[in-house]
Amino acid sequence: MCIRDRIDVASIDVLAWLSGKVGDAFAVTEGTAYHDGDGIVKPRGILTYTTAATADATRTWGQLEHIGTGASGAFPTSSTSVNPADVLVDVVGALKAQYRANARWLMNSLTAARVRKLKDAEGRHVWLDSLVAGQPATLLGYPVEIDESMPDVSAGSLSIAFGDFQKGYTIIERPGAKFLTDPYTDKPNVRLYAYRRVGGAISDFNAIKLLRFS
User: Is the pTM of this model over 0.85?
Assistant: First the structure.
């Protein structure tokens, strides 16, 4: 009995099972592309655009604004005049008011572990875990999304993003994965080709801010 026959008489829906597996693989690939994709046969990632330490009114369109921490690969060292958490306040302040209502933070788990230790001038943690199951933690009052595709903290890294990503980044897609069945090329095997049509790019460069560790 060839593979095709086994698909036809299988007790489970093989294509449905494969669709779930392929969907998981596509989700990982697309998530990475939304950060690092070069825009060639894939979405263009938010971290591939040039950045500048200039405000919205004076920055060249097509660039994202970054706010530097003032320390290479780290948050600034605490002192009587500097609080490490202040750079996060600066990021929030750099985002215009019309984007803040739906703004959120984006960072990976290792970066989040660093941020969780930061305190304000009164000694209170700026990170607050949610007491409601399924709700995200908040940082300075804004939700935090843990995204492992964001880079670890290193010299010059853009490890934290903040903004209204729905307004700032546009995704165009044809929903669902498509399958092409080829029972002829490799008899008696059946080849299954899966593909998705999806694209993405920044559409509003004022809606997203990046924290640069430099």
Answer: no
